[in-house]
Structure formats: C-alpha cells, structure tokens
Amino acid sequence: MLLFIPASLKPGQMVDGWRVVKALGSGSFGAVYLVEKEGQRFALKMAMHRASSGDAEQSDARLMREMVCLAQVSGHPNIVRTYAHGRWNDATRGWLYVVEDYVEGYTLGEWMEKTHPTAHEVVTLFVKLASALAHVHARGVFHRDLKLSNILVRASDGEPFLLDFGVGSYAQAPELTDSPLPPGTRRYRSPEATKFLREHGEESEARYAFKATDDVYALGICLYDLLTIARPWSESPAMFLGGRLELPAPHSLNPRVPAALGAAVLHFVARDPEKRAPTAEVMKRELAALLPEVGVAWREPFHVPKAHVQLAPEAPPPAPSQDEPARAARRGLSNTRGAFVVALAVLLGGLVLWRVTTPSESLPTAQRTPLTPSSAQQVDPEPKQPPPPPAPATMPPEVASPVSAPEQKESPPVKRAPSTMSPPPAPAIRKPKPLAVSPGWPPAQWGGFLKTCAGLTAAAALQMGCPGAQVRPEAADCPEAARKAMFTNKADGGMGMRKNAYVAFYADARQQDPGEAGVFREGPVTGEVYTDERPQLPKGTLLYGYLWTGNKDLLVGRYTEARLPNGQKVPVCIELGNVDDFGWRTWDGSKPGEVVARTNLSGIAVERWR
Q1: According to the UniProt entry, what is the EC number of this protein (predicted)?
Q2: Which of 140, 300, 543, 564 could serve as 559's disulfide partner, Cβ 3.0–4.6 Å?
C-alpha cells in the first residue's frame, strides 16, 4: 500500500464532497488544489502533515491558525473567505484541510510585469489593500508575512486580495516558534524587528512584540518595490533593506513616479516607527488623498517596457557537401576546446582585474545574497535604475499596437494643415521636459529597416529616410487592427468612428497652453485629448505616437494607440492635420529637429497614412 501524502491527490478524486480539478501548488507546509462543488470553484489547502505526525514545522497547527485568522477577519471584500474545513479521510486523525476563495489571477509582482499599470491604478489598488489591512488590525489580527507573493490580483476585474495568514497572529494565539521573530521574509521585516533580532538573537526567551506598524512597513515595501523595480517578480531587488539607512525616495530612483506618491511611500517605510504611518487606516487615507491627482504622470505607466526591435535574420549557412559532416564534427570539437580555453582565460583575467581594482572593504553593488543580521548592511550609494521588463511579444504586421501591454507605434505620415492663427510676435517659448518615451516604439516590423539604418553613414541614412533623419515618413496602409477598432460599429465591438473624423488634442501632453507656443522635438510622444467633442476618445484620453521635425516648416505626427480614461487601450491611426492638409505649419523660431508650433492641435482618424 502506497503511503498517502497531501500533494498526491489526483484530478477527479473526492475530498469530503469536493472534487479535485487540478493541483495549484505545494510546499513544506501543505498543498493547494483547485476543487469544484455544485458548479462552483474553490481553493482547497491541505496541511502536509497530520497533528499526530511529530511535524517539526507544525504545518497542521499553521493551517489551523490561518483558518482562525480568516474567520476573525471575514467580511472584507479584499480578503479571501473560508467556506469549510475538516479532516480527511479520518474525522479525528486525518489531514486538516480548509476550503477558501479561489482567486484566478496574478501575484502582485506578476501583475506589475504583465499589465504595466499607471500610478493612479497602483494607488487605487493599494487603497483597497490598506483598507483590508486596517480591517485585519481592527479585529486584533496581524498578518506578519505581507509580501508581493501573498497578494493576488484577480485577472477578471483587477481586485486585490490578501491571503496566506499561515504565520498570522491573534490574541491568545499559541506560540509555534522558539525564535525571537515570527516566521517571515527578510526584505519585508521592519527596521525595529531587525534591530531586535540583532540585539536579542542569542536569547532563547526573547520574543519580538509584533505591531501594526510592522505590517504597515511590509505593505509599504510592496508598494516601494512596485514603483522602483520594473520586474519585481522576475528579478531580485538590487538593494538590500537592512533597516540602518533611510531608503532613497522612489521618484529619485524612477523619475516617472509622481513626487507626491513617492513622498507618501517614504512615510510608510520610514526607518523610525515614530515617523511612520501609525496605522493602516492612516495609510489608506493618505493614499486615497492622491486619487484626485491629475496630469499625465498619473495616467502613464511608470515602468516603460523596453521596445522590442527584431533584427533581420542572419543569412543561412551554405549547405554542406557530402563529406562535410565528419570534418565539421572534428572542427566543432576543436573549436569547442579552443573556445573553452579562451573563455577560461578571459574569465580569470577579469577576476584578477576585479580583485585589483575593487577595494577589499566594499560590497558588490548588486547584492544578490541576503546578509545576516550581524553582517554589514548598506544601501547602494548610487542606486541604479531598475532593469527594464522583458521585451513584449512581437505583434503581427497588421496590428498597430498591442492592446494589453506596451504600445507599438506605426510609421507616421506628413501633410500640413495651415494654422488659422497668425503667429504671435516673439513668443515666450518654454522648453518642455524630456519627451515621454512611448513603451512600444519603434514597431517590431521596422526591425530590419532599423538594423539597416544603424549601419549607414549619416548622409546615407538621410537619403534613405531613416528615423531621426526623416523629413516626412512614407505613406502606408493603417494596420487592420486599428481600422477595425476605429471604424467598426459599436454593435460589432468597434468605436463607431467615421473615416477622417476630427480629433482635438495636445500634441504633447506636457505642453497644455491653448493657443500658446510649444517646442516639439523628434521622437516618441504622448498626446492628450482635451475635449469631449469626440465621445469615442473622451477628454483625458492619452495618445501614444511619434513626431517628425526634420522639416523646420512642418510638424508631422502619427499616433497609433489610445489609452482611454478607464484604462482601456485601443489601436488607432490618427495623424496631425486635417482632410485637406498634412501636418501643421510651424512658427518663427523653428529649426530642423526642434520646431515651434501651437500646443493644442488636431488630427484625423485615417485608414491610410498619407
């Protein structure tokens, strides 16, 4: 007879009336399954050991503790609920199981990488999480293990959920560990808890008194990591948080983070608990106060996905002759040995150079292995920008830009629309901040063309019309995905726009002085619709595109993706100008690469770039 373990349940097997659909995961404490009953789906967690098994990790007791915690904090919409519990397959000596909500979605870190949310979307989500944490504390419960992987975001509607209360605590909870600190994750441990461990780690009876500010700190670090690490789930943080130094402001590490949000986060992760938000309710109120904030910085992703440019494939090697395989094998073996020797020499040389040039007392800049509490803990004095997220999947040529992730831009046209206003005398020109980078520019289908451009001289690139040297981009059909999205009737899932529909917007969302002069430079740009005249693209819609300024007399632009105020992304083809004219005439003071024009312009929805 095979020994049963909780991780061995098979699809179709029944556990007290709950039918196993599939395994969701397992660890040292227990196993989790997707189960079904009466047409509804739930998550079933089963302790890895029985109460009488002598389990040193006390997985049975931990699951019982989670069940008690969840029972006490029930009633909040952002905390998973329990529906049943029992012992299987013996009522007194079987394996303990708990049936909870099944949340189909992503961990908080995965959600960040997959959706590239805006600052406003992240604040909205953390208002709900802080509300849930305040609810937990109001009922005398501490979570004690808040981290990115213990928060799920439901894929269907973006609702967040606190889960995994296995190391939670409540009044009169039995002690399950003999260490000074409760089980948890080092990165999210508060500075005062780290200090306690450093000072009392050798005392067998010492126990840290966990407080609400410890949970506030942990949730604050979750938010801090989302703002400063582009891929918080896939890549380890470059900075170890040891509690001895104040953390750098999030907006100093990532300039796309609004300063007001960065300042709020610093209040949640202050090293001194007296200077930290004292409760989760205060945290919730401070975040909620940011929700009315407006401006492009709050409605753009604060991590820009790296543009994916497909390089042209290399020429295929010539077909080998009949007797080539044997010679190739010998050459391959020889080359492999040679390459290994060369690589080894380079590696040894690099290590010697590093040892000579690196001071012995300094730590590596990117600390990958966690430090023990007694070892040196420091923050990188010059924090690096977080690494970019993975390149988005290449879209087929007919798609203007991905709808769910980074935006891809289509190559734009140029025709001019004469300004009906006479240029103002000697306008006071305010140069804007650096251009907002559009996440998906250039389009993947330009890969081969850009590779060719990179290898040309400036003169040759100018003749070919490479980006950066173009005066007017070539005419081309608008991608089918954008045409369908714009011109298909609403009843059939489209926006119901008419062809050549007029759209009024600021060409650059950072320059919003109607009728006044703005400065426009070559490159990716984010525009913003400023009127509700076009209901399909209401006021506040962001338009991602590209500007051409090689001709000092003409401002040319194409916009290939719209982000509606509700967060929905739609591929579009909107070009500066009107039906009769292409592009916009510039004003005095323009020069190639940097032109002056009115800030509030307009364009038309086209089915073909002119």
Answers
A1: 2.7.11.1
A2: 543
Residue 468 forms part of a structural domain: yes
- Distance (Å) of CA 414 to CA 461, 471, 551, 581: 19, 9, 10, 9
CATH of the domain at 528: 2.40.128
Question: What pLDDT digit, counting tens, does each position of 447-456 carry?
Answer: 444 444 444 4
Positions at the binding site for ATP = 45
As annotated, the binding site includes 45
Tell me the whole-structure pTM to 2 decimals. Answer: 0.56
Is position 61 within any domain? yes
C-alpha 268: how far from chain center: 21
Q: Indicate if 115 and 80 belong to the same structural domain.
A: no
What is the DSSP track for 448-459?
HHHHHHHTS-HH
Handedness of CA 551, 553, 558, 562 (dihedral sign): positive
Distance from C-alpha of 610 to C-alpha of 608, rounded to nearest angstrom = 6
For residue range 29-53, what is the model confidence (pLDDT) as tens digits? Answer: 789 999 999 999 999 999 988 876 6
* CA pair distance 110, 189, nearest whole angstrom: 21
Mean pLDDT of the residues in the chain: 76
What's the domain range around 184? 105-171+180-299
What are the residues whose beta carbons fall under 8 Å from the beta carbon of 341, sequence distance 6 or more?
A: none
For the segment 145-170, what is each residue's pLDDT rounded down to a tens digit?
999 999 999 999 999 999 989 888 88
| Domain membership flag for residue 348 | no
Task: Give the end of a domain, one of 73, 101, 129.
Answer: 101
Range list of β-strands (E), 472-564: 476-477, 502-506, 517-521, 523-529, 542-548, 554-563
Respond yes or no on whether the N-terminal peptide bond of residue 442 is cis (omega within 30° of 0).
Answer: yes
CA atoms within 13 A on the CB side of 428: 1
